[in-house]
Amino acid sequence: MTKSDRSHLNAVAELGCILCLRLGTPGTPAEIHHPRDGQGMSQRAPHTDAIPLCAYHHRSSEGFHGLGRRGFEATYGVTEAELLSHVRRLLAA
Length: 93
Hints:
Layout: H1 3-14, H2 18-22, E1 31-33, E2 51-53, H3 55-59, H4 64-76, H5 80-92
Antiparallel strand pairs: 1-2
């Protein structure tokens, strides 16, 4: 991982959980989620496509990895691509 990658991922994580923000609870500590859209199971998206999710929305049974992509989208009414777009707007501001 390059210094630029680390810097970007730190900026992403500092945003807090993007889904909590969307749900009205800003500032929740976040970990990095790499969407796999268009990637194989053992591949991850580039660091520039990372989105910040709290542990609950990332790894719990009610999170992305617990529900799977379709379940996550159905439960929360938002896609990874939409969350990534929001992240990019916030980083650009």
